[in-house]
């Protein structure tokens, strides 16, 4: 059915006659473009143009546009263009195409690449100050929402809070147990392996105990939660934003911060200390098992040494940090979710930003806490 | 056999589609002639969109045969379906524009994937399509989230028509448009059908569209086509659902003014 397209040009003096034939359809698009570009030099010398369409078996928008473009190239220099042999089926299409692309787009001006670069740096610097403002704004609106709850405790979304606790707390337990167990075991194995060289392998208990309770337990759990629950918060709120669900809430006189964000952040603040405790215990358990089977230190000795090595202060230091880290993760995740624009790409971008930023801030916060606890002697 | 293939763009015979134990399409047969505009009406949730999505291969079927332009469509999305897909364009109900591409890039996407064309020509074709569906070249630089409902439909139609397909499937093309825009859309579809020789399969609730642009109307009820034919035949149909649909309060404008 479809036949190969052809374009023959015959010039008599200043007059050029073009005879397209075959299928001038999109499926032959690349051939058609080559064909129509090939006659351009002849067109530029011609004074008048005649296009004989009688050989065209099939025509669609693409083919019609290419022919129209050829005729326009000449018609612009107020020379006449004549199109003959249009079949009845194609007349409407050719008429339609004659009206399009009449409007000249503004010329595209390339910009100086150095200025573009400098502008990008400036914008990202400005953007980071905006990040601080967004973070503080979210913290502020959470505080206001919390004050509102304290004044009218019944306005707390209890169902939502319990459901979020189930999702970020209860459902996270298996993976947190597994990861922290493995981390504890790896630390103990490395400690025993290296300490054994100078006969200090019993000190591995001190190392595992202090490291896990003070730093690693809370840090690993916070990073896991940022990746697991923070990203989910951002994606949920972002897609709600995209589908105007958040706008719908506002028009019903409900505050999205109270309805959506506060239960999520409170759930994180409540769940992270519990998860940290569970994670720390799993890590100590993993360390203890390795000490038993790899280091030959029985459980009773391990527990006795642990009792001497760690004080309740170490445990407190770890646990105090947990709710603050949860707050940072929750605020970053929710505010990034609200910054999602209309496209799927921006949802992905904001989710990535949310995870990267909350892990970064969790580590910075851990550093600040280390300085603080050192200065108060804990 | 060739005779029938020449005459019909889409042939559906004995089609069965269901989800779990619920049967949505129950031994349905439907032929769409080449070059006609077929309107499909049916109750909400009655399987109109399911029928359309099954024909284009998005929903697996449990029985029956579907032929599009003489090629059998497999029961799930496979290569053969994709080969036919170059010959059809689909306008989804919500537009389904790619949200990270501009309107112009959305229209160029099928062209860019299927043909080796220069960027200049791609831009010109995209602008031509935009103007054919009644938008300005400036609208081409907007992202889908910046377009109004009517503009989204127009851009989606332009994308569906990008490769000048033989068949276009339209899922409620005029829903959510004001009467003027809907009327323009009807005229546009009619013009494109005449100029490009399109076959149009249109799911719609818009009585005005059915009356003005559709060559034939098919009524889907209880998973079957209960009536098919030109609008005046459907108005005379005795089927209770068809009577309720076309003789309800909203349909008074379709009634003959006589008596």
Characteristics:
heterodimer, A: about 375 residues, alpha/beta, Transcription Regulator spoIIAA, 2 domains, five-stranded mixed β-sheet, 13 helices, B: about 260 residues, six-stranded mixed β-sheet, four-stranded antiparallel β-sheet, 10 helices
- The parts of chain A where pLDDT drops under 50 for at least 5 residues are none
- Tertiary shape of chain A: elongated
Placed side by side, the strands forming the largest sheet of chain B appear as 6-7-8-3-9-10
Tell me the series of helices and strands of chain A, N- to C-terminal. EEHHEEHEHHHHHHHHHH
Number of strand elements of chain A? 5
How many distinct folded domains of chain A?
Answer: 2
Span of the ends, CA to CA of chain B:
48 Å
Largest interface pair: A-B, 30 and 31 residues
pLDDT < 50 stretches of chain B: none
Rg of chain B computed from alpha carbons, rounded to a whole number of angstroms: 19 Å
Helix content of chain B: 25-40%
| Radius of gyration of chain A over all CA atoms, rounded | 35 Å
Count of separate DSSP helical elements of chain A? 13
Largest sheet of chain B: 6 strands, mixed
Shape of chain B: globular
Describe the structure.
The complex is a heterodimer of chains A (378) and B (259). Chain A has 378 residues and is of the alpha/beta class. Chain A folds into 2 domains: 6-98, 2-Layer Sandwich (Transcription Regulator spoIIAA); 148-376, no CATH class. Chain A is built from 13 helices and 5 strands. Chain A has helices spanning 29-38, 40-45, 61-75, 88-98, 113-151, 158-168, 173-195, 204-242, 245-251, 256-293, 299-309, 312-338, 344-376; strands spanning 6-12, 15-24, 48-52, 55-59, 81-84. In chain A, strands 1, 2, 3, 4 and 5 form a 5-stranded mixed beta sheet that branches. In chain A, strand 1 and strand 2 form a beta hairpin. In chain A, helix 3 (61-75) packs across helix 4 (88-98), helix 6 (158-168) runs parallel beside helix 10 (256-293) and helix 12 packs antiparallel against helix 13 (344-376). Chain A is elongated. The model of chain A has no long low-confidence stretch (mean pLDDT 88). Chain B is an alpha/beta fold. Chain B has a domain at 99-156. Chain B is built from 10 helices and 10 strands. In chain B, the strands form 2 sheets. Chain B has a 6-stranded mixed beta sheet with strand order 6-7-8-3-9-10. In chain B, strands 2-1-4-5 form a 4-stranded antiparallel beta sheet. The longest helix of chain B has 18 residues, at 179-196. The model of chain B has no long low-confidence stretch (mean pLDDT 81). Classes of the chains: A alpha/beta (378), B alpha/beta (259).
